[in-house]
């Protein structure tokens, strides 16, 4: 393995992914939780060694912070993640200001549009304001589109759109810009990577939304592509389709961030060597195309080690869990914090990537 540097008398050491990325003007990072920062020292050492950026996996989500009523939020876990970034010289991503799926239940029972607008404004001012000047980029509205909801503009109807109309997106972006003028404002989406009619429809809707935001002067700086991928049995991949999509985004003068990359192995064989190879191939195929586009500035994996992965924990997205009960292996390091073929694939993709201006 080319990126493993053997150290005599000690376990093999690995070249840091963040350094390989930085050589090309890229930032590499991971999702992390406050509980991991305070409770898993060896994992935290690996994060310090390998990454240049952290994002709170859950600790900055509204529902995760809120104690059950408007304005009553617990910032302690969010602070733990933000302080960890500051203390270690890591870039901090903000995830997220609004997300239909992690909005406190009381939001939908607020009396009227005015109250909802007030709640959104307070949320954005409080959270983005608290970390003003410290956040590289904010996911302002996470997952704003859902063509299957049937609107001509393809926007997701759940939670915010119902009372506020599509203007809630522009409002949220303006409030975020005001609260933290130096943070890049990101529209973060999933299922826009592959070659299926569904993904194509989602790409079209997302591009139309971005064009509309651009035309109306709504502040927006980047697109986040989540990239939760499957190694086997998932939708087909087309390098040319992905290439064109990334170029279309770049043509709007927006940068691109790969925000939640992981590769699940739900339909891969049980054999670990085979499985890890298939996962690594998927990382390689995707990143080789993505990193060719100079507008891509940042790559975040949704965790760093299989020790801490939402899929391994079996929290949501059951279709991504293995049916045979074996633990999934979606991330670059294994549960013992040893590098896997996926690490090698990511390292190689960074090494092969063209150099770009940081963004
Ligand atoms: C996931 C977390 O990883 C889980 O721990 C949690 O149970 C659910 O949310 N898209 C996103 C992320 O934008 O916030 C989600 O994170 C994964 C899908």
Structural description of this entry:
With 359 residues, the chain is of the alpha/beta class. It contains 12 helices and 11 strands. The strands form 2 sheets. An 8-stranded parallel β-barrel has the order 3-4-5-6-7-8-10-11, surrounded by 5 helices. It has a two-stranded antiparallel ribbon with strand order 1-2. Helix 6 packs parallel to helix 8 (167-179) and helix 11 (272-290) packs parallel to helix 12 (341-352). The longest helix is centred in the middle third of the chain and has 19 residues, at 197-215. The mean pLDDT is 96. The chain binds (3S,4R)-3-hydroxy-2-oxopiperidin-4-yl beta-D-xylopyranoside.
Topology diagram in text:
Layout: E1 4-5, E2 13-14, H1 17-22, E3 27-32, H2 34-39, H3 41-50, E4 53-56, H4 62-65, H5 76-87, E5 91-99, H6 113-130, E6 137-142, H7 160-164, H8 167-179, E7 184-189, H9 197-215, E8 222-225, E9 228-230, H10 239-251, E10 255-264, H11 272-290, E11 296-301, H12 341-352
Parallel strand pairs: 3-4, 3-11, 4-5, 5-6, 6-7, 7-8, 8-10, 9-10, 10-11
Antiparallel strand pairs: 1-2
Helix pairs in contact: 6-8, 10-11, 11-12
This protein binds (3S,4R)-3-hydroxy-2-oxopiperidin-4-yl beta-D-xylopyranoside.
(3S,4R)-3-hydroxy-2-oxopiperidin-4-yl beta-D-xylopyranoside is lined by residues 57-58, 142, 190, 226, 260, 310, 315-316.
Brief description of this entry?
The chain has 359 residues and is of the alpha/beta class.
Strand content: 15-25%
Question: Tell me, what's the shape?
Answer: globular
Return the average pLDDT rounded to an integer.
96
Helix and strand content put the structural class at: alpha/beta
Helix-strand pattern: EEHEHHEHHEHEHHEHEEHEHEH
Helix content: 25-40%
Largest sheet: 8 strands, parallel, barrel
Q: Which ligands, by name, code or SMILES, are bound?
A: (3S,4R)-3-hydroxy-2-oxopiperidin-4-yl beta-D-xylopyranoside
Report, as a whole number of angstroms, the end-to-end distance. Answer: 30 Å
Radius of gyration equals 20 Å
- The parts where pLDDT drops under 50 for at least 5 residues are none
* Number of distinct helices: 12
E-strand count: 11
Strand order of the largest sheet: 3-4-5-6-7-8-10-11
């Amino acid at each position: 393995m080319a990126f493993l540097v053997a150290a005599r008398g000690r376990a093999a050491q690995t070249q840091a992914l963040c350094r390989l990325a930085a050589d090309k003007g890229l930032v590499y990072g991971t999702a992390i939780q406050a509980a991991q920062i305070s409770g898993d020292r060896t994992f935290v050492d690996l994060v310090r060694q390998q990454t240049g950026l952290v994002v709170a996996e859950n600790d900055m989500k509204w529902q995760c912070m809120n104690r059950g009523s408007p304005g009553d939020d617990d910032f302690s876990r969010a602070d733990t993640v933000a302080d960890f970034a500051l203390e270690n010289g890591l870039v901090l991503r903000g995830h997220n200001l609004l997300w239909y799926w992690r909005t406190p239940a009381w939001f939908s029972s607020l009396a009227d549009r005015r109250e909802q607008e007030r709640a959104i404004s307070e949320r954005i001012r409080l959270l983005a304001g608290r970390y003003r000047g410290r956040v590289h980029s904010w996911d302002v509205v996470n997952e704003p589109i859902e063509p299957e909801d049937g609107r001509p503009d393809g926007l997701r109807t759940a939670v915010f759109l119902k009372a506020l109309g599509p203007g809630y997106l522009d409002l949220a972006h303006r409030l975020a810009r005001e609260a933290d003028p130096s943070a890049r404002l990101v529209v973060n989406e999933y299922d826009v990577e592959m070659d299926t009619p569904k993904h194509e429809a989602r790409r079209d809707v997302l591009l139309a939304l971005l064009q509309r935001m651009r035309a109306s002067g709504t502040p927006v700086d980047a697109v986040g592509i989540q990239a939760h991928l499957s190694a086997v049995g998932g939708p087909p991949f087309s390098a040319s389709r992905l290439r064109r999509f990334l170029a279309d985004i770049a043509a709007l003068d927006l940068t691109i961030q790969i925000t939640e990359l992981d590769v699940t192995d739900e339909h891969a064989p049980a054999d670990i060597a085979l499985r890890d190879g298939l996962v690594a191939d998927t990382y390689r195929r995707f990143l080789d195309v993505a990193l060719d586009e100079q507008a891509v500035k940042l790559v975040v994996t949704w965790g760093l080690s299989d020790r801490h992965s939402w899929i391994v924990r079996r929290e949501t997205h059951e279709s991504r869990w293995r049916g045979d009960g074996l633990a999934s292996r979606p991330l670059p390091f294994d549960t013992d914090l040893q590098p896997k073929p996926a690490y090698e694939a990511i390292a190689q993709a960074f090494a092969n990537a063209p150099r770009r201006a940081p963004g």
